[in-house]
Amino acid sequence: xxxxxxxxxxxxxxxxxxxxxxxxxxxxxxxxxxxxxxxxxxxxxxxxxxxxxxxxxxxxxxxxxxxxxxxxxxxxxxxxxxxxxxxxxxxxxxxx
Length: 96
Known about the structure:
mainly alpha, 73% helix
């Protein structure tokens, strides 16, 4: 069971010991450092993707909300949406 949990941790970029029992395996400081870096990178990528998803869902709300509600600040919302799309496209194409 512990081996299965370790494989699962590896596949989803968790550190060994998040789900499995690590008391039966000795790890060097380098192995611990690498595992923590892998987990940090995965969490950072998830956060960045979540941020993009939330922005997209906000823009979806903006363009599908009845105009009486959205008109209150539509100019500001459209400027934010346009700015965000330009930044996102620049990031996806490698431009800054």
